[in-house]
Amino acid sequence: MKNEFVFYEPGKSDVDSVPIGNGDIGAMVWGEEKGRICFYISKTDSFSSSLRLLKIGRINLSIGDSFSFISQNLDITKGVTTLEYEDDKEKAHIEVFVDAHNPCIRVGISSDKKISLKLESEVWRTSDERIEGGFDNRTAVYGDFFGQDNDEEPIIVYKDHISDKYDDAIMWYHRNLDSHYIPSLRFQQMEDLAHHAKDPLMNRTFGACAVSGQLKKTGSLGMSSVIPVNNHAICIGVLTEITEDSDGFCDALKQLADRCSSIDYMTALETHMDYWRKLFENSFISISGDSQAELVESGYNIQRYMNACAGRGEFPIKFNG
Fold first, then answer.
1. What does the angle CA 309 – CA 76 – CA 94 come to, to the nearest 5 degrees?
2. CB within 8 A of 223, min separation 6: which ones?
3. What is the pTM of this model?
4. What H or E segment, with its residue span, contains residue 254?
5. How far is CA 256 from CA 105, 123, 130, 275, in A?
6. What tens digit of pLDDT does each residue of 289-306 get?
7. Mean pLDDT estimate for the chain
């Protein structure tokens, strides 16, 4: 079974990324030239007030402009992507994985020489934005709010919030200030059934919190090394909750990130890889033959990996993966 995929060209955007996930939280990771590693964060239940599945955010890591990209590897039987960089024959090794047993993304960096790491969270929903379109030109597609008269019930994508509550972490979140749950049921002529379930969109709040023992907060969305070191470990906790207030959510998210970060990095990595190893050892399909047979086997295993990355969340896997 082909389980490793190696790329030797640096990425330029998420188009060049590889997927990792733990069944609920996901990340699309790519390595750029000049020592920058980027990834988007996703979650299976990060729905906006209009049922749009939003990305949690984006993380940019910099190990220094002098580092040149060598390769990026994805091993689907380990659930880990690794990136290699080089600076004058001194190597830097980066591991990124979404912990199979905990709601967090872990990043481990080891370098032949001491390096100063910079971490930045990129938030692009900086203001409330109305989605244009009326009843006549909206289409019935999953992930968009179809059939609603946008003039009477405007659809707003609300801005994200940045929390400066904690000196040892960067945190941001999105909170639904309203809900289009009832308009959706009304459009489907099911409004009389609304009392059977609690509104799943109102006050739904989701976000991420990054912590690291080697990094110091430098701004609302930035962290950097206190001193240059050979090894860095970063933990990014990710949470979705329906809460009455945002302060309670922030406290729960910070506690989650601290709890995940307190787990020894190597212990977390080993138990994570053991989960993926057992997944592929316990059941598999092996196909032998010509190159077409190998292609079918590879495609099957990649799809199984993708399903495992996204199939343990609160909601079913989206039809488009």
1. 95
2. 118, 119, 120, 170, 210, 212, 215, 216, 217
3. 0.92
4. helix 246-261
5. 12, 21, 33, 21
6. 898 998 999 899 999 999
7. 91
